[in-house]
Amino acid sequence: MNSGESLQSSLAVLQRHLLDFPADSAAWQSLAQLLATDAAATNSAQRDQDPPQTANQPAPTSNNLPVSRAPVAQVSPASQTPIKSAESAEALFRQAKTLADASDFTGCITLVERALGHSRELAQDPMLAFIYAHALRNASQVERALEVLLPFRRIAPTPWIPFELGLIFKSLNRPTDAYLCLKEARGLEPEFTWAAVEAAAIVSHTNIPLGRLDRLTANRQADKDLVELTIERLLRFGNLLLVIGWSPIPGRSGSRMRLLDPLVPAKIASGGSCYYRRPDVNQAIGSEPHNLHGFASLIDCSLLSRWSEVGDLQLVLEAADGAPMRASINRIRLCDIAEEASLDKLLEGLLGSLRIAMDSDTPWHEGIHIFTPQTMQICSQLFSQYTKSVKPRSEVHWLNPKDSNSAIKLSFIFVQLGHFDIARPALAQICKLGIPMEVIVVNNSIQFFRETFHVLNRMAGIYKGIRFGIINNPENLGFSAACNIGASNATGEFLCFHNNDLFANASNDYLALLHRAIAQPGAIHSAYQYFTDGTLMQKGIAITQINSASNYDVTLYNGYSIGRNQSQGEILACSGSLMLMSRDTFDQLNGFSEEYIYAHFEDVDLCMRARQQQIPLMIWEDITFFHAEGGGTVAPYHLGGTTGHVNRLLFSIRWQKVLQNMNTEVEYVL
Amino acid sequence: MSSDSLLPASSYDIAILTLFDPKITAGGAQQCAYDLYLNLKKYTKFRVCFIAATSPVTKLKSKANAFVRRSSNYEDEFYFFTGEYDYFWHCCKDSRPPKDLALFLEKINPKSIFISHYMHLGIDLISMIRAVLPTSNISVGLHEMLFACMADGQMVKKTDGQLCQKSDPELCSMCFPHINADVFAARKKFNKECLEQANNFIFPSKHLAGVFSDELNISPHRIHVINHPIDLSSYQAKQQNTFSANRPVRFGYFGQFLDNKGVDVMLKAGGELDAKQLKRRFEIVINGGNKEFASELYQAKVEALIKESRNWRQGSIVELGGYSHNELVSRMDRVDFVVVPSTWPEVFALVVTEAFACFKPVLAARIGGLGERLRDGIDGFNFQPRNPNDLAQKMHQCMSLTDVSYRQMSSEAYISAMRLNPKRALLEYAKALDLNLNFTDQLAAGAK
Question: Does A458 touch chain B (CB under 8 A)?
């Protein structure tokens, strides 16, 4: 055995070991070293080849070929001496193999072709066809090799034929066929590691539908350090995997869960996790109170999306404080987890877990560790794509025609999630304004359409000069997308984004705000908002830097309402609950960012972008609005009190570079 | 009736709207509105129509998409089919009925609209009418404090039974913990925005007008207090001849047997009166129905007091139960005084008027509109609300009256009832509704 063979053998042994013991840090290090050595050797070998068959993958050597026609249990090097005359197909095979092992592919081809010329019966022998095709492939006659071997694909109970076919297809740049053949080889012989490795190598570079090779790691040994997790729910959307369950050991903020694949070791699936204690549930499920810790982890499997082709992996728990990794006994196969049809389900599970953690006295700044910056951004992008995909299905219902004689001056845009009743006082005031207007309600909760219809319809046609409309979104698209949809349907010269639970002190406050906007159309206008008891709620939003007990990977920033207490700060934004601006200004800003998940921080984001574009923010003290905060939304459990924290994280990631150069106040969240 | 008469007149001068048709669902507010309608028809030349809301309770059959329908037997009377009603926001849940009603009103174009009670019509109808009839006079009648209090408009805390002086969203939320204070604040604002669209407001008592004015900051010149009138011809009562000492003095309770009606206060006062060991006997006669609607706690409390009364020496309790309007005069005949011990700020207390119409002096708690109904010491006595001791003293004072002074008080009570005659009320309504009345000679004579 030469040094290359030894290296490959050691790699295989290590990979097998790590499949069984994924928390063995030393083995991972050894694997990394071996892979580095292998890469160096491969590069050296590639320099000598003309040209390489496929990038990054060494072609199997004849060392891997079977020594007999019987199915192989494991790869073993050939050691027989060449046979000069073939008295039978078996003898001919051995002779041809010897030539192939010696890389004399031309000799091998000549030997087989000559024999076939003498006996047509030999042409029916599958192993002879195999060695013939093997030689043809290595002699760069790949298409001929395929022609020879393909008729035998389903005939012989040996993994070598599909394996060789896999390599032929690979050489022909037909990765899907190659994968299927390799998978077939793996299916015929569970211990056929090279087939698995080849399959993994192929699928890690191509986009092949998921499947799996069974029983690759069937012979695991017991591990005394294994953690037995109770996995209650596995949700998958795209490359994100949400694992929800119970753990016998507590986790810490910032600890990670990983899925490690020794066959593709450079690609690690990793995710943040949050833990919480639910003694009530422990009791309900029959475990001792405080015995189990609830956990949820969101794992980015984008590098592992094809990993499950080659078996199942263990979750590895990695503590934030450098404690040794712990592997779980639980096996996860992505291919077994049906992908959710809608992002909704993943978000419901994800945000629901965060809400449960928070309801179980886990501070938000610990619970938020369920996200890593990476998974946060993936979620955000998915949400944005989701809203874009659903938007075309929104339905516009105008309840009365537009008055053709007068141009719409102002379009009010309400976003509805839950009951719309609370908007009655604002609507009563708006109807008194006496200017050509539109009132558009973008309904994110289609089940409440009837209620919204009846709130608005009684006014439609009664109040002259006001057009009323409802836009039903088939799903909850969040605040930003709803506002943008409303704006895209609005025809007013000015747009007023207005929360349902907001109302003015008097109708004149609306007129005053509009007149200020007319006077200064290139600005964003808002007004002081008060609690319904008359206490000042906010005169604007400052941005603070959050110092918390649990450090996060990025600095967290907060939008802090100025005015409700004695704290002061530079006002950088106004609340999205009341924003009036010209259509041109809104378009210039390209609307609200739809990357914020459902709601919160999109208003601060908009104002930050306005600031970058030198668009002034005017918040008027002499115009008074009251905010019946929270009375206007009936959010599902998972959205209540969670999206603010999630979007705070997203906002912080997005504006990190800008904000760290600003002199922001520090806010302690302990 | 010709087929033409089934059609509404093309226009009306006055439209009176109320929560129910009294011919279908009896009640003070709707009766007053209907009486006003009849009197306007009788005594003036105005074209008047009456529009009564319905609710599922009335079981009037609706017809698809017909929300305002003519009453088949009464010219110029219409039913408004409310559909489901939202008692929190005081709006029809279905938008089509109120919209249709507003458009109907726009079509008949009345110069004056009187919404005698906005329940089952919707408080937002006021704004809608204002939008379609911007120059018409809109008057709104208020009969209880629902605009300020969700707890049956009684301004009594559900938490501890104490009185609320003013609506406060935070306190409202304590009575209704499932509704947060902000929503109550929004409701209050909505009520104000809608009510402000009316020109005038009509109240049966100064107390209610005061609460309304405080709550909504409405200018006093838009407020009119008109006591509910009474047609004495329908009360064939006679003044009793004697207040002799040889029989027990009878104190009657008339009304619902509900938590805040103060029956318990009256019974406790009876106990205190009995403890005074007076020479003269007395009876407490309870003419109270709907006991089953009282809370269990309250029922138990009253039962215990009645049980206790069996130990009284000079006094006794007689329970006669509920009564119909036809029985009222005969029931009144069986008492000497009517006690109105309400523990909530009654808005008007029609029972006081009814007592006066039957020559009965009244002992009334000095609370809410009830407190302003008497001329203390002339047609009855006021006592401190929720104070059995004070009531016992006033009962004792009553028992000490001479025959002559009782008769004088009884006569004054009837005079008080006479002041509430419908024609006088009609003149006051005319002023409030901005009618610029062109009364017939008959009305002018009556008014004089």
Answer: yes
From the options 1.25.40.10, 3.90.770.10, 3.40.50.720, 3.50.50.60, give the CATH code of A61-203. Answer: 1.25.40.10
CB contact under 8 A, B96 and A457: yes
**Alpha helical stretches, state H, A558-601:** 583-588
- State chain A's mean pLDDT as an integer: 83
| DSSP symbols for B247-276 | S-EEEEEEEE--GGG-HHHHHHHHHHHHHT
The ipTM, to two decimals, is 0.87
Q: How remote is the C-alpha of A4 from its chain's centroid? A: 39
Q: Which of A421, A457, A626 sits opposite B99 (nearest CB)?
A: A457
Q: In terms of Cα–Cα distance, which of A564, A574, A641 is closest to A610?
A: A574
- Domain A392-669 architecture: Alpha-Beta Complex (3.90)
Kindly list the residues from chain B whose CB atom is less than 8 angstroms away from the CB atom of residue A510: none
d(CA B298, CA B24): 31
Residue A502 pairs with which residues in a beta bridge?
A: A627
Residue B119 in contact with residue B91, Cβ under 8 Å?
Answer: no
Looking up tokens 């629902």 gives: B146
Backbone phi and psi for residue A579, each to the nearest 5 degrees, phi listed first: -140, 125
pTM for the model: 0.80
The residue with greater pLDDT, A137 or A634, is A137
Q: How far apart are CA A485 and CA A54, in angstroms?
A: 49
CA angle B215, B217, B223 (to 5 degrees): 95
In degrees and rounded to multiples of 5, residue A63 shows phi and psi of: -55, -25
Q: In this structure, are B320 and B203 located in the same domain?
A: no
Distance (Å, whole) CA A601 – CA A607: 10
Tokens matching residue B324: 């119909």
Residue A1 has pLDDT above 70, yes or no: no
Single-letter residue type at A494 = F
Write the DSSP symbol of residue A291: S
Distance, in Å, from the CA atom of B284 to the CA atom of B250, rounded to the nearest integer, reads: 6
